[in-house]
Amino acid sequence: MISREHKSKLKTYLKGAYIVDVLDKLSEKGVVAKSGKPYSSKMISHILNGRYENLEIERAIFEVYQERLKLDKAEKLERDRILGIKPTKPKKRDSQA
Question: Is residue 16 within 8 Å of residue 55, measured between CB atoms?
Fold first, then answer.
């Protein structure tokens, strides 16, 4: 089940435009409801909101999230390249605790 913490982070990032991508992902994998029909948009929303539990749908939601993160990162790098902005190196963490 998607936790409240996960839901908050997923919703903040995915906003409302994730359902079609999740449905496409499920369709690619041949994942359907017990009736043999594709899951409804409402069901996808219920899973993200923690009302129901469905591991296959949850995995698809997280896959869409990961794909969008990668795409956004690639787009940012491309914009920076076009504008001549050099990527910043991550700060090194202090190894002493």
Answer: no
pTM over 0.70: yes
- C-alpha to C-alpha distance for 50 and 1, rounded to whole angstroms: 6
Q: What is the DSSP letter of 52?
A: S
Q: Is 2 exposed, middle or buried (0-12, 13-18, 19+ CB in 10 A)?
A: buried
Q: Where are the domains of the chain?
A: 4-72
Separation of alpha carbons 24 and 41, rounded Å: 11
Contacts of 44 (CB under 8 A, 6+ apart): 18, 19, 22, 23, 57, 61
At what angle are helices 19-29 and 41-48 packed, to 10 degrees? 110
pLDDT digits (tens, 9 = 90+) for 38-54: 999 999 999 999 999 99
